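Hi R.,

Here's the chain you asked about this morning:
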Amino acid sequence: MQLLIALILLILVPLSGSCSSAPDTLVLELERAVWLGSRGAMNLSGLALGDDGYLYFSDDNGPAPVGWQRQNPVLLRIRLEKVLDSSNENPRLEILDAGGEGNPFERMAEQGGKAHKFDLEGVAVAGEGKLWAVDERDRLLIEYNTASGEMRQVASYSELASWHEQLAGGRINNGFEGIALLGRRLFLANEMFPGLIARFTLDSAGGVKPDTIFTIEGNHDITGLECSDGALYALGRSASMVYRLDPETGAVNAVASFALEGDDPRYRYRQRMDHYRNSEGLAVGEGRIFIVMDGNFQPCLEDENQRLPLLLIYKRPAGF
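And the predicted structure, written out as tokens:
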């Protein structure tokens, strides 16, 4: 009898420290799909929503050696109401020009730590009038002043990647893709091989100090980050998922899918490998979730003549 009671208790009462079940997956409801007039920027990879009513974008096809000359804009923005206006079919982005004397990209490259093209894969609002963008190939953190157009390097590979074996050993084109800020915490998403989120602390002197890393079980590539309402959000590209994480522990406490659009040829671009999808930038706020698709100069699967970047706008589920 005692053995029978023990077996019943074992079934009914979870063992201490056992893992809780994964959260149910929500399905995001599409509000609008918007083809963007991107002023020649065809590789929109980063996305952020500012308190000033703008959506900010970064383009990963930046200046390359030798000369570091720009072929297209790398930082852009648009008023939120323009992308929400259903009568505006191809809302036009505004270019954020680099200011100061000479070529700021060449100047930053001369400071050291730059061997490859500028590959701005993620962007975040870093306080009033400032954007931070993360460079994937050389693992740089760059600041842009929206008033003056000045650009400067905030941190480099030595601060951002050398401290952790998995980050230090990453491939050139599989580095930092997403960036988010929450108070004095900085989060950077390493795209894949391995896919993880690195957390840093910003000190009072402006330094970036490594803290810890998070991983998302079952997710292979993380291409966007956002912080909103005290939570950290991550974009899973090939899974077509948005994850809500606890920024302190990295625990995933909610998951939402946009696979209906991620797999739909109307919203996909041609890829070299079919298992990859196109979502690369994430913003959360104003009761919505925004996801930008990066076509890499390729045409839409359903329309060979359509190569513009695509912004998907979803209703944000209650509590997500």
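The first strand starts at residue 25 and ends at 27.

Let me know if you need anything else.
M.
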